């Protein structure tokens, strides 16, 4: 036996009854744990409000069905979902009645999300400062600037008669004047520095001469 799909007309006079079965409405209300007890009057008011809401939702979905290029007399799920997405006072049903999408659209969305995730991972893994050219790792701009400064003439630190490098290594000591014999291990000593600064330079030819025994 087919279901009765004929529309129930709105009553012209208030009859004090609801089109929804009141006993079933009470059972649905009793399933809510937050409601300890509900009176008959409250259950009836909820039933009438639910009836009015369903009537309004059906009318809006029917308006969507009539506004299509091929108007229809029966409403479908997509009509209700379209009405929920268009009307502001029905936005609270967007999670309950979401708009349907095709399987192709779902696959395309998943593919785009995967491509975006892969691109983000590649960007994180590829450091622009660590790129290689012809199999040789290129240095960063900061490292290149430091190397350029080290190669400039006069960039080596000349301190206390010793040649220093950027790495703090002591280079070869310059030739000491006659009478000044300073070992490299004592080159950085403050005592030796003062001695060197205060020492008098001997004129050429005034070196110490070792006398040989002629006996």
UniProtKB/TrEMBL annotation:
UniProtKB keywords: Nucleus
Limits of the Transcription factor CBF/NF-Y/archaeal histone domain: 20-84
GO molecular function terms attached to this record: protein heterodimerization activity
Source taxon at top rank: Eukaryota
Pfam family name, one: CBFD_NFYB_HMF
Gene Ontology cellular component annotations, sorted alphabetically: CHRAC
Protein known as: Transcription factor CBF/NF-Y/archaeal histone domain-containing protein
Lineage: Eukaryota, Fungi, Dikarya, Ascomycota, Pezizomycotina
């Amino acid at each position: 036996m087919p279901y009765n799909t004929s529309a129930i007309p709105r009553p012209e006079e208030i009859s004090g009854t609801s089109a929804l079965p009141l006993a079933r409405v009470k059972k649905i209300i009793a399933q809510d744990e937050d409601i300890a007890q509900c009176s008959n009057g409250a259950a009836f008011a909820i039933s009438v409000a639910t009836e009015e809401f369903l009537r309004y939702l059906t009318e809006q979905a029917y308006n969507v069905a009539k506004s299509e290029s091929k108007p229809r007399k029966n409403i479908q799920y997509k009509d209700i979902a379209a009405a929920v997405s268009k009307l502001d006072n029905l936005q609270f049903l967007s999670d309950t009645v979401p708009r349907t999408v095709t399987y192709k659209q779902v696959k395309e969305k998943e593919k785009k999300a995967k491509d975006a995730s892969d691109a983000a991972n590649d960007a994180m893994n590829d450091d622009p400062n660590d790129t290689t050219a012809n199999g040789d790792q290129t240095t960063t701009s900061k490292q290149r600037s430091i190397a350029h400064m080290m190669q400039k003439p006069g960039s080596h630190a000349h301190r206390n008669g010793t040649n220093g490098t950027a790495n703090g290594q002591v280079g070869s000591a310059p030739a000491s004047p006659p009478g000044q014999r300073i070992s490299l291990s004592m080159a950085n000593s403050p005592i030796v520095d003062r001695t060197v600064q205060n020492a008098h330079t001997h004129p050429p030819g005034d070196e110490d001469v070792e006398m040989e025994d002629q006996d």
